[in-house]
Structure to design on (410 residues):
């Protein structure tokens, strides 16, 4: 039996959109192994795809702090997953992720926690393991302000003197190879140089909070993914941008880091008989209950549907990508538009049934009378160019506005 960690298939992902936040979540497990004094050279690295296909000689113990929104296949029986910070959208993946088999499940967010508790699965609210990354050393070089992927609505509120000197960064990369080292180098720059981070991106805010950097986390709306962070950091939305404290102080979370790390060690070693650590961590967050969160992947398709669909008319639609986003979209349409019919599923990587419809390739784009929904964020680039080629105008991107234009990557 060997220790394992996830990795990004960088060659496979080079033609799609990449998010540095994926790398830092995987790096959090590498940091956990360092805490455990495990020789990382001996740790087996597997891709997300290999979660389901791995059949090596050794059984793998795999700690996971990662969202598994696109998962439908069953995890390999030779992998022993230790869920430390799981995030899911619906209960449809309970069996494929083998959650009953490997409970208790550490959940990254309140929504996942509530889904599993309701399903009778032992679960606790853990937050994200990127919160355990080491604090930066004190120094005089941390003088920069970084503005990272903020929503457009926040820009007018940022003090002019900040915008004048700030360095602007993005965590989204398009159409090129991105190595693990390149991604982690950006976080190292934050750690070494930042005196303030202003961001709308969760996996910029949390690691920088762990580094001991003052963070302003402000998004247009409060996402289900970040509700747990309210215990440690103000969550500003569009209604509270006017109240932002533009001179925040670092948050001391070193004690909480130690609790999270020790609990992770206990989980991995499988020596826990009583779950005192899980209870202690979960109770830290459970006394704050937030019900007014949204699924950002549903905002744009719902806006589009309400604007363009008539509930009384027959409607045909096609979904691009078999994911949990697709499941949420299907459930919403089935509930609210009884005359709407799913007539096709586009999935270029697998042939499966989704609510009775077998997935197909891009030939479905010939259904010119159908509406198209892109449920996979990383497919936006391909989808937009393909829709243009086929002269398709009736579509919505689940994770971006319909009129979204991809930036030119330099």
């Amino acid at each position: 039996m060997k220790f394992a960690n996830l990795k990004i298939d960088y060659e496979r992902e080079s033609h799609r959109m990449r998010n540095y936040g994926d790398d830092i979540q995987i790096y959090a497990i590498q940091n956990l192994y360092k805490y455990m004094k495990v020789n990382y050279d001996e740790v087996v690295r597997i891709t997300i795809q290999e979660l389901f296909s791995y059949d090596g000689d050794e059984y793998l113990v795999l700690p996971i702090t990662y969202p598994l929104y696109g998962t439908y296949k069953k995890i390999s029986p030779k992998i022993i997953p230790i869920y430390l910070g799981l995030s899911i959208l619906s209960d449809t993946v309970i069996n494929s992720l083998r959650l009953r088999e490997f409970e208790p499940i550490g959940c990254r967010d309140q929504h996942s926690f509530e889904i599993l508790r309701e399903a009778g699965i032992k679960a606790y609210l853990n937050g994200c393991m990127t919160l355990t990354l080491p604090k930066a050393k004190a120094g005089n070089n941390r003088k920069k302000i970084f503005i990272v992927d903020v929503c457009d609505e926040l820009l007018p509120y940022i003090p002019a003197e900040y915008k004048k000197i700030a360095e602007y960064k993005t965590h989204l990369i398009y159409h090129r190879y991105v190595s693990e080292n390149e991604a982690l180098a950006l976080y190292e720059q934050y750690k070494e140089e930042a005196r303030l981070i202003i961001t709308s991106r969760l996996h910029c805010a949390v690691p920088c909070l762990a580094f001991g950097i003052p963070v302003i986390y402000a998004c247009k709306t409060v996402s289900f993914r970040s509700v747990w962070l309210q215990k440690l950091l103000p969550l500003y939305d569009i209604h509270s941008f006017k109240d932002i404290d533009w001179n925040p102080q670092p948050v001391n979370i070193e004690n909480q880091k130690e609790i999270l790390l020790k609990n992770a060690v206990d989980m991995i070693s499988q020596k826990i008989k009583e779950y005192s650590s899980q209870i202690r961590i979960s109770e830290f967050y459970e006394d704050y209950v937030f019900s007014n969160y949204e699924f950002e992947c549903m905002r744009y398709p719902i806006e589009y549907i309400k604007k363009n669909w008539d509930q009384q008319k027959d409607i045909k639609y096609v979904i691009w990508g078999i994911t949990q986003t697709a499941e949420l979209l299907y459930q919403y349409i089935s509930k609210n538009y009884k005359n709407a019919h799913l007539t096709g599923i586009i999935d270029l990587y697998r042939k499966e049934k989704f609510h009775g419809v077998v997935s197909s390739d891009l030939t479905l784009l010939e259904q010119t009378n159908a509406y198209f929904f892109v449920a996979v964020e990383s497919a936006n680039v391909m989808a937009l160019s393909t829709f243009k080629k086929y002269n398709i105008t009736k579509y919505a991107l689940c994770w971006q506005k319909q009129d979204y234009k991809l930036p030119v990557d330099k």
Observations:
- Residues 271-276 have pLDDT under 50 and may be disordered.
